[in-house]
Amino acid sequence: MANRSYHAVPTDKGWAVKREGNQRATSVHNTQKEAWHVAREWAKKHETSAVKHGMDGSVKEESSYEPK
Question: Which range of residues forms the domain containing residue 35?
Fold first, then answer.
């Protein structure tokens, strides 16, 4: 099974980190910067990628920590 990415996405309660395929947020943060930091840390730990989204939902940045 492929590792699922962590996404930093805007919500009505702040910035959420969601694992790809999950409906519920793994965590919610006050700022995009905080959510992006957490998404990258979890992606590193699980050897997958992190994706940062903008307010409009578009992809702004991606970091991959998948093994080579």
Answer: 6-60
The model carries a pTM of: 0.91
Nearest-Å Rg of the Cα atoms of the chain is 11
Longest dimension (CA), the chain: 37
Residue 12 resides in a domain: yes
Instruction: Evaluate whether residue 29 is within a structural domain.
Output: yes
pLDDT score of 2: 57
User: Do 17 and 34 form a contact (C-beta atoms < 8 A)?
Assistant: no
Low-confidence ranges of the chain (pLDDT < 70): 1-2
- HSE of 63 in the Cβ direction (CA atoms, 13 Å)? 18
